[in-house]
Design brief:
Largest sheet: 4 strands, antiparallel
Strand order of the largest sheet: 1-2-4-3
Number of strands: 4
Distance between the termini: 34 Å
Number of domains: 1
Structural class: alpha+beta
CATH architecture: 3-Layer(aba) Sandwich
Order of helices and strands: HHEHHEHEHEH
CATH class: Alpha Beta
Shape: globular
Helix content: 40-55%
Strand content: 15-25%
């Protein structure tokens, strides 16, 4: 599928079937996330792959009981590794570059998921400490986004977008 078609046709899916997600597709998604650009190529992030029902339930509870996190077959959780970015970039790396690294990798993963015919939705609404605990309280890491992954159980219509002239300022 063409990148522009993927971007245009991708939808946020919050309802999944119970059909398993193929392991090779998850690996391709992870490989694509790994290919994302990062500040100084430090890749100041970590990705947690959560497949267990218990893990997904704990993440769902952390995500304000969003059912899509519990019912997805797999959930990827992207975490910043601020110390990794700080090694080269100090406070700015800690505060900004690690966050950018994690969210760019998450975006690449989201596009790969769509390209593979799978479905997801970006989940940013969650209690950070509860999500961190659900992952096993990894030292130095901070969760910033979740991607529940599965086969779509719905086909939502395209949402409207603001016109370019409202968002783009040409100088």
């Amino acid at each position: 599928m063409d990148l522009f078609q993927i971007v245009k046709e991708r939808r946020s899916i919050r309802l999944f079937t119970d059909r398993p997600v193929e392991e090779e597709k998850i690996e391709r998604v992870l490989e694509t996330a790994l290919a994302a650009p990062s500040a100084g190529n430090l890749q100041a992030y970590r990705i947690y792959v959560v497949k267990s029902a218990e893990g997904r339930a704990a993440l769902s509870a952390a995500a304000l009981d969003q059912d899509c996190v519990r019912t997805a077959q797999v959930v990827l959780v992207f975490c910043t590794d601020a110390a990794q970015a700080a090694k080269k970039y100090g406070e700015r790396g800690e505060r900004l570059y690690a966050l950018q690294d994690a969210t760019i990798a998450c975006t690449f993963a989201m596009l790969a998921i769509a390209a593979l015919g799978l479905a997801t939705v970006w989940v940013g609404a969650f209690r950070e400490e509860a999500a961190w605990k659900a992952l096993g309280s990894p030292a130095g890491l901070s969760p910033v986004a979740m991607l529940p992954i599965g086969h779509a159980g719905e086909e939502p219509a395209a949402t409207s977008r603001r016109p370019l002239e409202k968002l783009v300022h040409r100088l």
